[in-house]
Amino acid sequence: MFDSLSDRLNGVFDRLRGRGALSESDVRAAMREVRIALLEADVALPVVREFVDKATEQAVGQQVLRSVTPGQQVVKIVNDALVEMLGSDAVDLNVDVTPPAIIMMVGLQGSGKTTTTAKIAKRLTEKGRKKVLMASLDVNRPAAQEQLATLGTQASVATLPIVAGQQPVDIAKRALQAAKLQGYDVLMLDTAGRLHVDQALMDEMKAVAGVADPEEILLVVDALTGQDAVNVASSFSEQVPLTGVVLTRMDGDARGGAALSMRHVTGKPIKFVGTGEKLDGLELFQPQRVAGRILGMGDVVSLVEKAAETIKVEEAEALAARMAKGQFDMNDLRNQLKQMQRMGGLSGLASMLPGIKQVKQAVANGAADDKVLVRMDAIIGSMTPKERTKPELLNAKRKIRVAKGSGTTVQEVNKLLKMHQDMSTMMKKVKKMGGLKQLGALFG
Ligand code: GDP
Predict the structure, then answer these.
(1) Homologous superfamily of 300-443
(2) I need a surface site. Which of 34, 40, 193, 359 has the fewest CB within 10 A?
(3) Domain 3-86 has CATH 1.10.1040.10
(4) How is it placed in the membrane, per its record (predicted)?
(5) How far is the CA of 112 from the centre of ligand 1 (A)?
(6) What 3-state DSSP class applies to 317?
(7) What CA–CA distance (Å, rounded) separates 148 from 145?
């Protein structure tokens, strides 16, 4: 899903490469592609227009830097502009007030509202050391209140006892009283959802907000619904004073464009993203990461961070230098495989690089589980030093020898060679994009 976007930008920047300066026509040509790319990433049209205008203005007016290619400069400008529009810094919850701080959760049914309520409560309990009470005001959906109680047990967070037949505003009042009397720092109110935005829902929310006077009203939206999510956000923000948005299912295929539109439409920060069904699948919103995702260039930031935890800088620089010379042989691949093992296997690595088809395919083909990494190491170990530096020497006869020596099959030897070739191609591609330093950091 990310690939066409990534390829498109690669195309643009390839054409720009080699020019001495960013002319206005260069920028306009690039921005035409950026515009299509953003639309494909599910960014709303008015937002795209504004974004492209802004980025064009910045790019054309800017002095051309000597040390980078025009393509790199455009990537940087587009990336920075995206980050800026997404709201630069992560914004945490406003809960350090006279207790109880009240957080009201709103959103459509199925958006992940109840799950997110429990996720946030868990986070506040564990990380914020807050005493949290959760209450479900959802009297429409059968068993909604029980669902929250179950999640509360899982998260070790208290829930308000259920009183059958009580209406939302009364539940809110009771919750408020309980939170005050029992010394809770935070009260989370999980309101009812609907399948569609309707007036009864909005009225109910307003009534609850009137009684509870919350510090935070968080809108929960499903990132996978793209443009629909933006329409929902727009309807809600017209009716209730939202303080922030939570985008769920960012662990799925969502292209991230909704995030950009959301911020623009509601004017409110995205505070968290949901990254899984489990209760620890919640992260503070990181504009840089989402910008990377919209650009289809992979979640480079988190990858770099993860790599930095496990990998020595000198190794990275040495590899980067070799790659700059176009050298990437079997010895390098062997080192990479070792490091991938340290980084949680190839599948973990590939999942962070949505743009890189080859690695993903290798994973999909089953070429890359952890046992396979060990076998690949054995295959390289059975090559002669000459073969390792020049894998093209490996003809049919040599392959049979290597397979025998490593206790594998010729098929597996071929798979490894194909992977080496794919990775070389990928590295050349990234190098062209100007991402050499980053790539060195990732793979070194
Ligand atoms: P509600 O109707 O808005 O309260 O939605 P729920 O909290 O019941 O969630 C609906 C479904 O979405 C459940 O199966 C959740 O496990 C799932 N869900 C919620 N958030 C996420 C997320 O961030 N990622 C994924 N993959 N699933 C999620």
Answers:
(1) Signal recognition particle, SRP54 subunit, M-domain (1.10.260.30)
(2) 40
(3) no
(4) Peripheral membrane protein
(5) 3
(6) helix
(7) 5
Q: Whole-angstrom Cα distance, residue 2 to residue 359?
A: 14
Closest protein CA for atom 28 of ligand 1? 277
Instruction: Transcribe 361-426 into DSSP letters.
Output: HHHHTTTTSHHHHHHHHHHHHTS-HHHHH-GGG--HHHHHHHHHHHT--HHHHHHHHHHHHHHHHH
Instruction: Write out the two tokens for 115.
Output: 């799950």
DSSP state of 94: -
- Sheet of 282-284: strands edge to edge? 158-159, 132-136, 186-190, 101-107, 216-222, 244-248, 270-274, 282-284
- DSSP labels, 118-166: HHHHHHHHHTS---EEEEE---SSTTHHHHHHHHHHHHT-EEPPP-TT-
Q: Decide: residue 328, CB within 10 A, 0-12 exposed, 13-18 middle, 19+ buried.
A: buried
Q: Convert the pLDDT of each residue in 207-265 to its tens digit.
A: 999 999 999 999 999 988 877 888 888 889 988 999 999 999 988 777 778 888 888 88
- CA 54 vs. chain centroid, Å, equals 24
Provide the pLDDT for residue 395: 94
Ligand 1: which residue has its CA nearest to atom 5? 112
Q: Which SS3 state, helix, strand or coil, does residue 188 take?
A: strand
- ipTM score for this prediction: 0.98
- H or E stretch at 216: strand 216-222
Q: Which two tokens stand for residue 123?
A: 């986070």
Residues with Cβ within 8 Å of 191's Cβ and at least 6 positions away in sequence, in order, are 104, 105, 106, 113, 137, 138, 168, 204, 205, 208
Q: Phi and psi of 268, rounded to 5°?
A: -110, 150
Question: What are the tens digits of pLDDT across the range 188-202?
Answer: 999 998 777 788 888
Distance in Å, CA 113 to ligand 1 centroid = 7
What whole-number distance in Å separates Cα of residue 290 and Cα of residue 256? 6
Average pLDDT over residues 332-343: 71
Domain 101-290 has CATH 3.40.50.300: yes
Q: What percent of the chain has pLDDT over 90?
A: 36
Ligand 1 pocket test, candidate residues 115, 279, 280, 285, most atoms within 8 A of CB: 115
Q: Copy the structure tokens of residue 418.
A: 């194909």
Element of type H or E holding 282:
strand 282-284
Q: DSSP readout, 231-271?
A: HHHHHHHHHS---EEEEE-TTTT--SHHHHHHHHHH---EE
Q: Domain spans of the chain?
A: 3-86, 101-290, 300-443
Cis amide prior to 99 (ω within 30 degrees)? no
| Ligand 1, atom nearest to 220 Cα | 3
